[in-house]
Amino acid sequence: MQDPNSTLAGRKFGNKPAIPIGIGLTTAAFMFAAYSMYKKRDMHTQWGLRLRVAFQGFTLGALLWYSYKATKEKEVRNYANIRKIDWNKLEQEAAEAENAKTDLPKNIFSQEKE
């Protein structure tokens, strides 16, 4: 038997259930508004369109929330991989580089003929 999460939609929305729910509710509200418009029920049409906007807001909120969560989880994983910096060794290497730089001629671009 095939794994239910093996389909593209299953993989994309398997751990984000609010997104397909919001899409379905938005579609249903729009279809309700279109049917009400066909039947010339003005109040039902208005309610259907208002519900559509509300469900679109819900879907957008879910998308933003899942994006925020994914970013935070990624940041936590990245902090675990940061190596520790030995500041004393870094300062020592910088001092050695400064000392080595003083051994250079003052003006390396001079055009003096020897």
UniProtKB/TrEMBL annotation:
Domain of life: Eukaryota
Residues of the HIG1 domain: 1-81
InterPro entries membership: Hypoxia_induced_domain, RCF1
Gene3D superfamilies: 6.10.140.1320
Signal peptide (residue range): none
Gene Ontology cellular-component terms listed: mitochondrial membrane
Chief subcellular location: mitochondrion
GO term, biological process aspect, one: mitochondrial respirasome assembly
PROSITE patterns: HIG1 (PS51503)
Keywords from the named record: Membrane, Mitochondrion, Transmembrane, Transmembrane helix
Transmembrane annotation, as ranges: 18-37, 49-68
Pfam families linked: HIG_1_N
Keyword Aminoacyl-tRNA synthetase found: no
Protein location: Mitochondrion membrane
Protein name listed in UniProt: HIG1 domain-containing protein
Organism, scientific name: Smittium simulii
